[in-house]
Automatic annotation (TrEMBL):
<dbReference type="InterPro" id="IPR051120">
    <property type="entry name" value="ABC_AA/LPS_Transport"/>
</dbReference>
<dbReference type="GO" id="GO:0016887">
    <property type="term" value="F:ATP hydrolysis activity"/>
</dbReference>
<protein>
    <submittedName>
        <fullName>Urea ABC transporter ATP-binding protein UrtD</fullName>
    </submittedName>
</protein>
<dbReference type="Pfam" id="PF00005">
    <property type="entry name" value="ABC_tran"/>
</dbReference>
<dbReference type="InterPro" id="IPR017781">
    <property type="entry name" value="ABC_transptr_urea_ATP-bd_UrtD"/>
</dbReference>
<dbReference type="Pfam" id="PF12399">
    <property type="entry name" value="BCA_ABC_TP_C"/>
</dbReference>
<keyword id="KW-0547">Nucleotide-binding</keyword>
<keyword id="KW-0813">Transport</keyword>
<feature type="domain" description="ABC transporter">
    <location>
        <begin position="22"/>
        <end position="262"/>
    </location>
</feature>
<dbReference type="GO" id="GO:0005524">
    <property type="term" value="F:ATP binding"/>
</dbReference>
<dbReference type="InterPro" id="IPR032823">
    <property type="entry name" value="BCA_ABC_TP_C"/>
</dbReference>
<dbReference type="InterPro" id="IPR003439">
    <property type="entry name" value="ABC_transporter-like_ATP-bd"/>
</dbReference>
<dbReference type="InterPro" id="IPR027417">
    <property type="entry name" value="P-loop_NTPase"/>
</dbReference>
<keyword id="KW-0067">ATP-binding</keyword>
<dbReference type="GO" id="GO:0005886">
    <property type="term" value="C:plasma membrane"/>
</dbReference>
Length: 262
Protein backbone atom coordinates (compact mmCIF):
# COMPACT_ATOMS: atom_id res chain seq x y z
CA UNK A 1 0.00 0.00 0.00
CA UNK A 2 1.35 3.40 -0.93
CA UNK A 3 1.29 5.83 2.00
CA UNK A 4 -0.08 9.28 1.39
CA UNK A 5 2.29 12.17 2.02
CA UNK A 6 0.58 13.37 5.22
CA UNK A 7 0.54 9.83 6.61
CA UNK A 8 4.28 9.61 6.06
CA UNK A 9 4.77 12.95 7.81
CA UNK A 10 2.72 11.77 10.79
CA UNK A 11 4.90 8.74 10.96
CA UNK A 12 7.84 10.97 11.92
CA UNK A 13 5.92 13.29 14.23
CA UNK A 14 6.92 11.41 17.36
CA UNK A 15 10.35 10.21 16.37
CA UNK A 16 12.90 10.48 19.16
CA UNK A 17 16.62 10.18 19.43
CA UNK A 18 17.49 6.50 19.55
CA UNK A 19 14.45 5.32 17.59
CA UNK A 20 15.37 3.24 14.58
CA UNK A 21 15.12 5.28 11.39
CA UNK A 22 16.59 2.88 8.83
CA UNK A 23 16.61 -0.88 8.64
CA UNK A 24 18.52 -2.69 5.91
CA UNK A 25 17.71 -6.36 6.27
CA UNK A 26 19.13 -9.28 4.30
CA UNK A 27 19.78 -7.21 1.19
CA UNK A 28 21.60 -8.77 -1.76
CA UNK A 29 22.41 -7.14 -5.10
CA UNK A 30 23.95 -9.04 -8.01
CA UNK A 31 25.57 -7.62 -11.12
CA UNK A 32 25.94 -10.38 -13.72
CA UNK A 33 26.11 -13.00 -10.99
CA UNK A 34 28.61 -11.02 -8.88
CA UNK A 35 27.22 -10.16 -5.44
CA UNK A 36 27.96 -6.50 -4.74
CA UNK A 37 25.80 -6.79 -1.61
CA UNK A 38 25.53 -10.13 0.10
CA UNK A 39 22.86 -10.50 2.76
CA UNK A 40 23.64 -7.02 4.09
CA UNK A 41 21.92 -6.11 7.37
CA UNK A 42 22.34 -3.08 9.62
CA UNK A 43 20.24 -0.35 11.17
CA UNK A 44 20.62 3.36 11.90
CA UNK A 45 19.02 5.29 14.76
CA UNK A 46 17.58 8.77 14.69
CA UNK A 47 20.10 11.23 16.11
CA UNK A 48 23.02 9.03 15.13
CA UNK A 49 26.12 9.81 13.08
CA UNK A 50 27.30 6.53 11.55
CA UNK A 51 30.48 6.06 9.58
CA UNK A 52 30.61 3.33 6.95
CA UNK A 53 34.03 2.21 5.83
CA UNK A 54 35.31 -0.54 3.58
CA UNK A 55 37.88 -1.16 0.88
CA UNK A 56 37.19 -0.30 -2.76
CA UNK A 57 34.43 -2.54 -4.03
CA UNK A 58 33.13 -3.42 -0.54
CA UNK A 59 29.63 -2.30 -1.55
CA UNK A 60 29.35 1.15 0.04
CA UNK A 61 28.03 2.96 -3.03
CA UNK A 62 25.72 0.08 -3.91
CA UNK A 63 24.29 0.22 -0.38
CA UNK A 64 23.54 3.94 -0.80
CA UNK A 65 22.07 3.28 -4.24
CA UNK A 66 19.69 0.75 -2.68
CA UNK A 67 18.59 3.06 0.14
CA UNK A 68 17.95 5.94 -2.27
CA UNK A 69 16.09 3.80 -4.81
CA UNK A 70 18.63 3.90 -7.64
CA UNK A 71 19.26 0.15 -7.46
CA UNK A 72 16.67 -2.46 -6.54
CA UNK A 73 18.02 -5.51 -4.70
CA UNK A 74 17.34 -9.14 -5.58
CA UNK A 75 16.18 -9.90 -2.04
CA UNK A 76 15.85 -8.21 1.34
CA UNK A 77 13.96 -5.31 2.81
CA UNK A 78 14.74 -1.67 3.48
CA UNK A 79 12.46 0.10 5.93
CA UNK A 80 12.47 3.82 6.72
CA UNK A 81 10.99 4.84 10.07
CA UNK A 82 8.51 2.32 11.44
CA UNK A 83 7.03 1.01 8.25
CA UNK A 84 7.91 2.86 5.06
CA UNK A 85 8.94 0.22 2.54
CA UNK A 86 11.61 1.99 0.48
CA UNK A 87 11.89 -0.84 -2.01
CA UNK A 88 8.37 -0.12 -3.25
CA UNK A 89 9.23 3.51 -3.98
CA UNK A 90 11.08 5.33 -6.77
CA UNK A 91 13.99 7.76 -6.26
CA UNK A 92 11.96 11.01 -6.15
CA UNK A 93 9.45 9.57 -3.65
CA UNK A 94 12.28 8.37 -1.42
CA UNK A 95 13.85 11.83 -1.47
CA UNK A 96 10.45 13.26 -0.72
CA UNK A 97 9.84 11.17 2.41
CA UNK A 98 13.07 12.48 3.90
CA UNK A 99 16.23 10.81 2.63
CA UNK A 100 18.87 13.17 1.26
CA UNK A 101 22.06 12.11 -0.48
CA UNK A 102 25.15 14.17 -0.97
CA UNK A 103 27.46 13.01 -3.70
CA UNK A 104 31.17 13.65 -3.62
CA UNK A 105 31.26 16.47 -6.14
CA UNK A 106 29.53 19.67 -5.03
CA UNK A 107 26.89 20.97 -7.43
CA UNK A 108 26.01 24.39 -6.09
CA UNK A 109 24.71 27.22 -8.28
CA UNK A 110 27.98 29.09 -8.90
CA UNK A 111 26.43 32.43 -9.84
CA UNK A 112 24.04 32.60 -6.92
CA UNK A 113 24.91 33.69 -3.40
CA UNK A 114 25.11 31.37 -0.41
CA UNK A 115 21.74 32.64 0.76
CA UNK A 116 20.15 32.20 -2.67
CA UNK A 117 21.48 28.68 -3.01
CA UNK A 118 19.83 27.76 0.28
CA UNK A 119 16.64 29.50 -0.71
CA UNK A 120 16.50 27.71 -4.04
CA UNK A 121 16.95 24.40 -2.27
CA UNK A 122 14.04 24.98 0.11
CA UNK A 123 11.49 22.21 0.19
CA UNK A 124 8.43 22.85 -1.94
CA UNK A 125 9.87 26.15 -3.06
CA UNK A 126 8.71 26.71 -6.59
CA UNK A 127 9.75 30.33 -6.81
CA UNK A 128 12.90 29.78 -8.81
CA UNK A 129 11.95 32.32 -11.43
CA UNK A 130 10.47 34.85 -9.03
CA UNK A 131 12.33 37.58 -7.22
CA UNK A 132 14.68 36.05 -4.76
CA UNK A 133 14.72 37.22 -1.13
CA UNK A 134 11.81 39.66 -1.19
CA UNK A 135 8.93 37.33 -0.46
CA UNK A 136 10.33 34.99 2.14
CA UNK A 137 8.30 34.72 5.31
CA UNK A 138 10.04 34.90 8.66
CA UNK A 139 9.94 31.15 9.25
CA UNK A 140 11.69 30.61 5.94
CA UNK A 141 14.30 33.26 6.72
CA UNK A 142 14.86 31.68 10.15
CA UNK A 143 15.34 28.33 8.53
CA UNK A 144 17.95 29.66 6.12
CA UNK A 145 19.67 31.48 8.98
CA UNK A 146 19.69 28.34 11.13
CA UNK A 147 21.19 26.38 8.23
CA UNK A 148 23.85 29.04 7.54
CA UNK A 149 24.87 28.87 11.21
CA UNK A 150 25.01 25.09 11.08
CA UNK A 151 27.28 25.05 8.03
CA UNK A 152 29.37 28.01 9.21
CA UNK A 153 28.69 30.23 6.19
CA UNK A 154 26.59 32.97 7.76
CA UNK A 155 29.18 35.67 7.24
CA UNK A 156 29.43 34.74 3.57
CA UNK A 157 25.68 34.85 2.97
CA UNK A 158 25.91 37.37 0.12
CA UNK A 159 28.97 35.89 -1.57
CA UNK A 160 28.57 34.05 -4.84
CA UNK A 161 29.03 30.30 -4.43
CA UNK A 162 31.55 30.32 -7.28
CA UNK A 163 34.15 32.09 -5.13
CA UNK A 164 33.86 29.70 -2.17
CA UNK A 165 36.65 27.26 -1.36
CA UNK A 166 36.15 23.56 -2.12
CA UNK A 167 35.32 22.90 1.53
CA UNK A 168 32.85 25.78 1.74
CA UNK A 169 31.09 24.51 -1.38
CA UNK A 170 30.75 21.10 0.22
CA UNK A 171 29.22 22.68 3.32
CA UNK A 172 26.87 24.76 1.21
CA UNK A 173 25.68 21.64 -0.54
CA UNK A 174 25.12 19.97 2.81
CA UNK A 175 23.11 23.08 3.73
CA UNK A 176 21.06 22.72 0.54
CA UNK A 177 20.23 19.18 1.54
CA UNK A 178 19.18 20.38 4.99
CA UNK A 179 16.76 22.83 3.38
CA UNK A 180 14.92 19.78 2.03
CA UNK A 181 14.23 18.79 5.66
CA UNK A 182 15.55 15.25 5.45
CA UNK A 183 15.37 12.86 8.38
CA UNK A 184 18.28 10.80 7.10
CA UNK A 185 21.30 12.12 5.22
CA UNK A 186 23.71 9.96 3.27
CA UNK A 187 27.02 11.71 2.69
CA UNK A 188 29.63 10.31 0.33
CA UNK A 189 33.29 11.06 1.13
CA UNK A 190 32.70 14.56 2.48
CA UNK A 191 36.32 15.42 3.31
CA UNK A 192 38.05 14.31 0.10
CA UNK A 193 40.29 17.16 -1.05
CA UNK A 194 39.78 19.29 2.08
CA UNK A 195 42.44 21.08 4.14
CA UNK A 196 42.98 19.80 7.72
CA UNK A 197 41.06 22.80 9.08
CA UNK A 198 38.18 22.13 6.70
CA UNK A 199 38.19 18.47 7.73
CA UNK A 200 37.86 19.52 11.35
CA UNK A 201 35.00 21.90 10.56
CA UNK A 202 33.24 19.18 8.57
CA UNK A 203 33.42 16.81 11.53
CA UNK A 204 31.74 19.49 13.64
CA UNK A 205 29.06 20.25 11.04
CA UNK A 206 28.13 16.58 10.61
CA UNK A 207 28.12 16.04 14.37
CA UNK A 208 25.78 19.02 14.86
CA UNK A 209 23.63 17.87 11.98
CA UNK A 210 23.21 14.38 13.38
CA UNK A 211 21.58 15.82 16.49
CA UNK A 212 18.58 16.90 14.40
CA UNK A 213 18.64 14.02 11.91
CA UNK A 214 20.44 10.78 11.29
CA UNK A 215 23.62 11.00 9.23
CA UNK A 216 25.43 8.19 7.44
CA UNK A 217 28.92 9.06 6.22
CA UNK A 218 30.89 6.91 3.79
CA UNK A 219 34.52 7.85 4.10
CA UNK A 220 38.05 6.55 3.57
CA UNK A 221 39.80 9.10 5.77
CA UNK A 222 40.46 7.25 9.04
CA UNK A 223 41.66 10.34 10.91
CA UNK A 224 38.37 12.02 10.10
CA UNK A 225 36.39 9.01 11.24
CA UNK A 226 38.34 8.88 14.45
CA UNK A 227 37.68 12.58 15.04
CA UNK A 228 33.95 12.01 14.62
CA UNK A 229 34.16 9.32 17.29
CA UNK A 230 30.90 7.63 16.50
CA UNK A 231 29.84 4.11 15.64
CA UNK A 232 31.58 2.60 12.64
CA UNK A 233 30.31 -0.14 10.34
CA UNK A 234 32.89 -1.99 8.26
CA UNK A 235 31.68 -3.44 4.98
CA UNK A 236 33.54 -6.25 3.28
CA UNK A 237 32.44 -8.11 0.16
CA UNK A 238 28.92 -6.76 0.47
CA UNK A 239 28.31 -7.69 4.13
CA UNK A 240 28.97 -6.20 7.55
CA UNK A 241 32.36 -7.40 8.76
CA UNK A 242 32.37 -5.52 12.07
CA UNK A 243 30.57 -2.75 13.90
CA UNK A 244 31.56 -0.68 16.93
CA UNK A 245 33.55 2.33 18.00
CA UNK A 246 36.84 3.08 16.28
CA UNK A 247 38.98 1.45 18.98
CA UNK A 248 36.96 -1.74 18.81
CA UNK A 249 37.19 -1.71 15.01
CA UNK A 250 40.94 -1.21 14.99
CA UNK A 251 41.39 -4.07 17.44
CA UNK A 252 38.94 -6.36 15.71
CA UNK A 253 40.65 -9.54 14.53
CA UNK A 254 38.56 -9.95 11.37
CA UNK A 255 39.17 -6.34 10.37
CA UNK A 256 42.90 -6.65 10.97
CA UNK A 257 42.99 -9.78 8.88
CA UNK A 258 41.21 -8.17 5.94
CA UNK A 259 42.97 -4.79 6.10
CA UNK A 260 46.38 -5.61 7.43
CA UNK A 261 46.68 -9.23 6.33
CA UNK A 262 47.45 -10.31 9.90
N1 LIG B 1 26.49 -1.29 -12.23
C1 LIG B 1 27.38 -2.23 -11.91
N2 LIG B 1 27.64 -3.26 -12.76
C2 LIG B 1 28.53 -4.21 -12.46
N3 LIG B 1 29.24 -4.24 -11.31
C3 LIG B 1 29.04 -3.25 -10.44
C4 LIG B 1 28.11 -2.20 -10.69
N4 LIG B 1 28.13 -1.34 -9.62
C5 LIG B 1 29.04 -1.86 -8.75
N5 LIG B 1 29.58 -2.99 -9.24
C6 LIG B 1 30.57 -3.81 -8.55
O1 LIG B 1 30.07 -4.10 -7.26
C7 LIG B 1 31.11 -4.05 -6.29
C8 LIG B 1 30.76 -3.06 -5.21
O2 LIG B 1 30.86 -1.76 -5.75
P1 LIG B 1 30.61 -0.42 -4.92
O3 LIG B 1 30.81 0.71 -5.86
O4 LIG B 1 29.33 -0.51 -4.20
O5 LIG B 1 31.82 -0.47 -3.87
P2 LIG B 1 32.36 0.70 -2.94
O6 LIG B 1 32.55 0.11 -1.60
O7 LIG B 1 31.48 1.89 -3.03
O8 LIG B 1 33.77 1.02 -3.61
P3 LIG B 1 34.56 2.42 -3.72
O9 LIG B 1 35.17 2.66 -2.38
O10 LIG B 1 35.60 2.11 -4.76
O11 LIG B 1 33.60 3.47 -4.15
C9 LIG B 1 32.39 -3.71 -7.06
O12 LIG B 1 33.10 -4.90 -7.31
C10 LIG B 1 31.88 -3.09 -8.34
O13 LIG B 1 32.78 -3.31 -9.41
Amino acid sequence: MKLLKHEIKQDFGNIRKGDRILLVDGVSVSFDGFKALNNLSFSIDYGELRCIIGANGAGKSTMMDVVTGKTKPDVGQVIFGDAIDLLSMDEPSIADVGIGRKFQKPTVFQNNTVFENLELAMKDDKRFFKTIFSKLNSAQKDKIEHTMNLIGLKELYNKEAGILSHGQKQWLEIGMLIMQEPKLLLVDEPVAGMTPQEVENTAQILTDLSKENAVVVVEHDMEFIRSIASKVTVLHEGSVLAEGNMDAIQNNEKVRKVYLGE
